[in-house]
Design goal:
Number of domains: 2
Largest sheet: none
Oligomer: single chain
CATH architecture of the largest domain: Orthogonal Bundle
Shape: globular
CATH topology of the largest domain: MetI-like fold
Length: 281
Amino acid sequence: MSATAATRVLFDEPGPRGRRRILILSILSALLIAGIIALGLYQFGVNGQLAADRWAPFTRPDYIRFLGQGAQGTFTSTAVAAVFAFPLALLLALGRLSSLRPLARVSTAWIEVFRSIPMLLVVYFFLLALPGAPFHVTFPRFWMLVIPMILVSSASTAEVFRAGIRAVDKGQGEAAVSLGLSHAQSLRYVVVPQAIRLVLPSLILALVSLLKDSTLGFVVSYNELQYQGKSLVAYTHFLVQTYLIVAFIYVALNFLLTQLAHWLDRRMQRRAASAGPSLVE
């Protein structure tokens, strides 16, 4: 199954009228966003927020280093959460699709519970409930943020993997079994790799969502970018300037993640092309 054909399985390709409508809406949205930005800059200028003396402190090495430490904390928490959450999500997806009813029920319960609970409540549970009676369990600030990120992200990403597995042509698994592979081997070597290629853009979106979830680190006083920005505002009283810079850093990080997604997609397509045709065309 080619990447183009796989995309058509997951999404309906728009026709000429749909593409024209999408183009018009994109242009109107871009004009609206540009107008909002221009209005915001005008208001900032009128209120003196664009004065040079309000931006000069952010060129100092100590300020840059302080925000850099926050960006590093954001990146570290996001990366560690993704390393644990994505493999767990794949296992949960396979568990939910399993013919073993106890395993399917446990996986389904995990997914439905943690998909329904806001991550902020999970963070508060680790911050306030676990250290108290009757648990008396405490975690470092880093893990008070990362473990809730893993729990919530694994549940939502499991559904992404499940959709990808179901989108793979059933003939692929049947052909693998007819060639002598067991059901587990057909999943491991045939179905799951194709499913991962199908859902790769969605996985990057999940990674971006994890990056945004890391902003809840300020609840547990973890030194991520949002918390560092909050501390800087308390010190400089330059709220607008600080949070605009923090927002720019988030945009830059998301841009890097998008570029990583494109690179991974191209690499996986090259590997799929070099591996030859699939079991079932």
